[in-house]
Design a protein that fits this description.
Penicillin V Acylase, Chain A, 369 residues, six-stranded antiparallel sheet, eight-stranded mixed sheet, 2 domains, alpha+beta
Length: 369
């Protein structure tokens, strides 16, 4: 399959538009709707992500056939079913609607955790994100603000979409994700908001991937319930999770597969890129995550030193190009990675703003409960 790539800021007009998929019903029905409506995109994205996972492992001296990769993915499915049967049923529905197997959908949804498991440690610079949370007292509207850029393979950009889920029971959700994916950067109708950045640790294991975990967190009605679903999950790999609620509470949690640590807030602000910050988790880091994550962390911390922030201010931070190819807003300059989408969440206003492609060029859309 030909890998789709853009040249700096010259992105097609239709890529600047964020598609919206609406799902209703029980969990398996919503999955079937998603799979059937997006079958072509899901099948294409699966091929792209499978190739990325196999190449990632091969570059680290571990070569797998497609059958071997699918067998490894299959070993995680019983863990997913035990973790949350409704999420398992929704994933099964996506697979059936898209005419793919459960193992294939597991690979599509959980690319970073799955490729880390195949590679078992050695990780290169690549998929990343820049996440930040602003306390109500630092916000121009006295409202909690949570935001992030989602950086990943540029070939994924045409498959980024907003999914609105309205289940028969439990909270409804808005989430920036990919076709065939579960909740990623998301807000639910109880005012619980989540986001994530990718980190890499050597204790990766069979388990549930980060989208399974975020999807379960979006079933929560309180921030404590959501935090427990993250902390107690049988995690396959490492991620940073940011979480907030409609009362203005927020936390950041660094998680390896086996351990976790809460992040400290500096003057009402919390930020995270793609390297481990907690001193106790640091020894588990797989390798140096490269210059971009350090440059972005330094730059976002500089930009967060002001006393007050509006939505426009946050968009400017997400669009910052200081540092060139290492910037907060990343452009594909040959390494195949770019900012695929951006999100700003106002949990207290029950509102999520999102765009596909670069935050300074994409057409932002607003969704509210």
């Amino acid at each position: 399959m030909q890998i789709w790539r853009i040249n700096l800021s010259q992105i097609p007009i239709d890529i600047k538009e964020l598609p919206v998929v609406e799902l209703k019903g029980d969990f398996q029905t919503m999955g079937e709707q998603f799979g059937e409506a997006s079958r072509t995109q899901i099948n294409e994205l699966y091929e792209i992500r499978l190739e990325a996972a196999l190449n990632h492992a091969k570059d680290r001296g571990r070569e797998y056939s497609v059958d071997q990769a699918l067998a490894i993915a299959s070993e995680n499915l019983s863990i997913l079913k035990e973790f949350d049967e409704e999420i398992y049923e929704e994933t099964l529905g996506i697979a059936e609607g898209a005419n793919l197997s459960l193992a294939q959908i597991f690979i599509l949804q959980g690319l970073t955790d799955f490729r880390d498991f195949l590679s078992w440690g050695k990780i290169s610079e690549g998929v990343g994100c820049t996440a930040l949370s602003i306390s109500p007292e630092k916000s121009a509207t006295n409202q909690l603000l949570m935001a992030q850029n989602w950086d990943l393979g540029t070939s994924n950009m045409p498959y980024v979409c907003m999914v609105s889920r309205f289940p028969n029971s439990g909270p409804s959700t808005y989430s920036l994700t990919v076709y065939g994916g579960l909740c990623m950067v998301a807000l639910n109708s109880e005012g619980i908001a989540v986001g994530t950045t990718n980190i890499k640790t050597t204790d990766t294991r069979p388990g549930v991937h980060y989208l399974n975990i975020l999807h379960k967190a979006m079933k929560a009605k309180t921030i404590k319930e959501a935090e427990k679903s993250i902390i107690n999950a049988p995690r396959a790999g490492a991620h940073f999770y940011m979480i907030g609620d409609s009362k203005g509470n927020f936390n950041g949690i660094e998680c390896s597969a086996l351990k976790h640590a809460y992040m400290s807030k500096e003057n009402g602000v919390l930020s995270h890129c793609n390297h481990i910050l907690d001193k106790d988790l640091k020894p588990l880091e797989a390798e140096d995550m490269g210059p971009s994550t350090c440059q972005r962390q330094k730059r976002v911390d500089q930009l967060l030193k002001r006393e007050s922030f509006s939505i426009s201010d946050i968009k400017e931070i997400l669009s910052d190009h200081d540092g060139g190819e290492l910037a907060i807003c990343r452009h594909d300059v040959g390494e195949g990675i770019s900012t695929n989408g951006s999100v700003i969440i106002e949990p207290q206003n029950m509102t999520i703003h999102a765009c596909r492609s670069y935050p300074n060029e994409g057409n932002w859309k607003k969704f509210s409960f």
